[in-house]
Amino acid sequence: MNPIQQLFQKGSTLPAPAEVLYEFEEPLIFVHGDVPVQSLWYKQTGTPSGPQYWVVPTSDPILTRLKSGRISMLDALRQPWASIIEIDRDQRIVRTEPPKEEDEEFLPNPGTMLYAELQPWFSVRFLGENLDPGAVPASIAELAFKMGRKSLRKAAELAIAAAETQNLKNQIPFLKSFQNLSFGGTRFASFQVDFTLPIIGTSGQPGYQAAIENITGILDQATRLLTEENAAPCPPEELIEVGLALCPPLHGVVEQVELGGRLLSNRKIPIDRAKTRQMKNRASSIRENWRTFQATGRIRDFDKDLPGFTLREVIVNGANHSDIDCEMDEEFYDDAYDCFHNDLPCEVSLAARSSGKAKLLSIQQCAGAKDA
Amino acid sequence: MTFPTTWPQGCPPDDASNEPIHAYRISKSNPPELSDFETFWESGRAKSCRACGLSLLQSREAAKHHINLFPKAGHWIADVLVGGGFGRWANTPSKTQPLHLTWWVPESINRMDAIQETFSA
Q: Which pTM was predicted?
């Protein structure tokens, strides 16, 4: 007989819970007992005679982690001992026994947090046959962070552009926060990185809900590009870039990416390498139509989150030119920042695109700029 | 709009709204069946005014989360128009369920007519 069965024996009456953690019409997840003998109760199902619970020993540290979203509901219910306890309508225990295999089917879905607001806003999980902790370089985990940040940044950029076009400026502060979401945690030994919003208590503010719907819509379109055969035959180039940023690399141990989180309506969306190839082909065919040109100028506005900059005092083909808004990949960040920070004139190679910002292809300081 | 006389006095409460809004209820079947829309009062499990109403959630995301937390609760989310001609409702949040809403259905109304759409979770 395990400690739970010793505490709650058949025929005894269940006292009122010490703490209700989740209720809907009735308490569904709650805690019984006090330190050091606490138990966590999870309602699995109801029968005409009464409810059936999955009951495990618990502790204050486990409950703290559960309530703060650091562990999922399933994590909290996976303990060395578990019991199935059925009670009748008079709160009398009528059955207590170890779980059977079929009882496992009644447990929460993996990764589900106690409360909806604790679910990560966005998550990137790497999958692969040889992807085992201790067997791959730490740079693989770093790649998951980078991939999550890059795809969100690009989606937020598109959402900001849409908000600016429609003069919905109250969305922009919220959308900017998606360009660099807070670290929400990593799942133990699973190569999953979660991202969450740093803003607390803003959900009722004007523009917040619309901003969430805006960026959710962008990510929905991008994931449709990846998952639906007939989605958007001629999508905007920027949307293809978002889609490409969500794809796994073509080489190495990461064979598949599973995307999730509130921004994807908590769906789990698997993306494999075949999708990477498709998106790369689509991106290449668009890039063939890019018009490239050289320009010189100074970087006076630098957006480290995007990242990107505005080139001012621009000269193209020996003639003055209007300011150019540029975006760049991470590889150019240091060189561009150096020109911005030291106000050095620079020479850039750019791709003019059908819409939005020019894409930086190369950058270097003008000869003698540092000496001058 | 009349409510069952067998309900507790003052139920639904005076401050319950009849403004039409959308709310979400989890259902085991699609289309939902009456058994998916049974109150605690009707099933004899409780006799309070809250139990005379149906529990709904104010966002589809909250409903989806509930299904992930309790996979056997149902696989479908019914979009329900509450208020308007379809009875009265009140925000009935708790510390652990801030998006909870209670919907009291009048006697003369078939509650299944209030279902606008049913989604897969």
A: 0.72
